[in-house]
Amino acid sequence: MSGFDQTLLDEADETVRVRLIVNGRKVTCEVAPRDTLVDCLRDKLELTGTHAGCEMGACGACLVQIDGRAVHSCLVFAVQADGATIDTIEGLSESGVIADLQAEFHRRNALQCGFCTPGMLVNAQELLSRVTQPNREEIRDALSGNYCRCTGYETIVDAIDAVAKARSKGGGAA
Amino acid sequence: MVTNLASRLMSRWISEETAVKARAFSYFRAATIDQALDAHARAGDDARFIAGGQSLVPALSLRLQAPRLLIDITHIDELRGVRREGSHLRIGALTRHCEMLSEPLIAEFAPLLHAAAPFVAHPAIRNRGTFGGSVALADPASEFPAMTLALDAEIEIAAPSGRRRIKADDFFIDLFETALQPGELITAIHVPLFKADQRFAFDELARRRGDYALVGCGMVATFTGERIDDIRISFFSVGNTPTRVKGAEATLIGSSLDPERIAAAQGALEGDLAPLDSDEVPPAMRLHLARVLLGRLLGRLGEGA
Ligand SMILES: Cc1cc2nc3c(=O)[nH]c(=O)nc-3n(C[C@H](O)[C@H](O)[C@H](O)COP(=O)(O)OP(=O)(O)OC[C@H]3O[C@@H](n4cnc5c(N)ncnc54)[C@H](O)[C@@H]3O)c2cc1C
Ligand code: FES
Ligand code: FES
Asked: What are the residue boundaries of the 2Fe-2S ferredoxin-type domain, all occurrences included (chain A) (predicted)?
């Protein structure tokens, strides 16, 4: 009736199987309940494009899409994501949906060490899918949780701004 | 000391002995409210409900908390959805911060929450954080708990002994302490429908966009013409709990928003607020910022904002 099995309490560190659709492929993964999604992606699935920085929601390096929305993978336990669809920077790159953003980041030196870049791209993609023509203020606002220790942000905002304009004209960024 | 989770987490992070992995726990995904309550009780209350996890996961990672059992409540349908119920809007506990921006019923009938939402954290955190989680946590620096006070909202609670509703005025007790007992679940928050003779205003002062506010404030007023019949003003980041400023409210009721009235309300804040000493912001500065913010918001209210 209750659905809760008391023996569960003695199995704190035993792994459980989670099923995910990661970058379009069905995968199953053995995780401990305390494993975060970012650790699962990097250590178990060897998708190391998602970066782990602060591991407490402050830096934005670990952003992925869960069911189409940008989420910090350090603030989700992998067990919570059981049954979810996850797209990482690898999937977004392979599918080509962010090719214009990547090219523009490259062209404008919007990355240096690249640690923050996957998170920046996931967030930029989410912004552009919700707002067709964001102004610079809105771009900055959307990136407020993404730290970059290298670029000074200006070129990142420039790149996203350029892609937003190009996309709303119906073409890719030049 | 006025504190909030982010800065506490940050200082832990910077001060060496940082654990960034949670202690081992068991995980249970509840399908119903009864299952969630039952699981909590059977873990001897050494359990935590997890909703958006945007405050709980960092707290677990830093081992500020280390429960035996995590009960995932995000698959409980009854906690979801926004709907009209008579003179109220029933906002399910699992309503995400981002839905405060996208849900038309909120924009129309609880515009104060719609206005506050962009100030809550960053977009990706808003995609997951929930209204119920924010109110349950009762961070004194958070926007939504304070807005439940301004809105005269009621918190709907499920306990093993049954359901009850409690006024926001009676809900927030002390720092991170509420009328919610361990093992009790917030199921929804009921907000009176915004009416044609009402006006609202919201704003906050923060160092950077997305940071917790140095001082924030939201208000709802009922007018006859330009005369205020009723007003509720609530501040956050000013003490141990979200705080209504009843002295300032009293100076405004029955009058219109002329400059003298606004100045009187600003003056009353000294009696209403007693900001605590903090490393970050001296009490006198916080009180000053609160006055500035109140003046601005009442000005907007007078312009029909
Ligand atoms: C970097 C960062 C910045 C942030 N900035 C802000 C900000 O500016 N303003 C702000 O308001 N918040 C901010 N937050 C916090 C965020 O809004 C959280 O989403 C919110 O505080 C908690 O909601 P949650 O659903 O994530 O709750 P959880 O983290 O899942 O839970 C929080 C607590 O509430 C309990 N709980 C959750 N749901 C219920 C329920 N229905 N009934 C009973 N108990 C429950 C949990 O057991 C836990 O103790 C920030 C977070 C981060 C990581
Ligand atoms: S690693 Fe997730 S936000 Fe920093
Ligand atoms: S490019 Fe180095 S952190 Fe952004």
From this structure: 16-92
| ipTM over the 0.90 cut-off | yes
Strand partners, B234: B218, B244
In Å, what is the CA distance from B76 to each residue of A100, B31, B79, B210? 40, 5, 6, 29
Is the CB of A80 less than 8 angstroms away from the CB of B38?
Answer: no
Ligand 2 nearest-atom number relative to CA A54: 4
A36 lies within 8 A of chain B by CB: yes
Which tens digit of pLDDT belongs to each residue from B251-270? 999 999 999 999 999 999 99
Cβ of residue B57 closer than 8 Å to a chain A Cβ: yes
Contact B247, B268 (CB under 8 A): yes
B303 Cα–ligand 1 center, Å: 34
State which residues form the domain around A159: 96-168
Please state whether the predicted TM-score (pTM) of the whole model is above 0.80: yes
Q: Note whether A88 and A160 are same-domain residues.
A: no
Inter-chain CB proximity A9 and B68 less than 8 Å = yes
d(CA A34, CA A12): 9
pLDDT score for B10: 53
Same domain, A82 and A135: no
Q: Which two tokens stand for residue B197?
A: 């003779």
> Looking at the domain assignment, is residue A174 inside a domain?
no
> DSSP assignment of A120-147, as one string?
HHHHHHHHHHH-SS--HHHHHHHTTT--
- The continuous run of DSSP H or E covering B251 comes out as helix B246-252
* Closest chain B residue to A38, measured at CA: B21
**A80 and A12 both lie in a single domain:** yes
Domains and CATH numbers, chain B: 21-72 (3.30.43.10), 77-192 (3.30.465.10), 201-302 (3.30.390.50)
| Judgement on whether residues A13 and A83 belong to the same structural domain of the protein | yes
Do residues B75 and A81 touch, judged by C-beta distance below 8 A?
no
Instruction: Closest CB to B124: pick one of A13, A71, A79.
Output: A71
In total, how many domains does chain A have?
Answer: 2
Please report the beta strands in B179-238, taking only residues with DSSP state E, as ranges in sequence order: 185-192, 198-205, 215-224, 227-236
CATH code of A57's domain: 3.10.20.30
**Cα separation of B168 and B97, whole Å?**
19
Whether A173 is covered by a domain: the verdict is: no
| Chain A interface mutation, best of B13, B15, B26, B208, highest count of A Cβ atoms under 10 Å | B26
Same domain assignment for residues A83 and A104 = no
In this structure, are A64 and A105 located in the same domain? Answer: no
What is the pLDDT, as a whole number, of residue B12? 45
What confidence score (pLDDT) does residue B19 get? 67
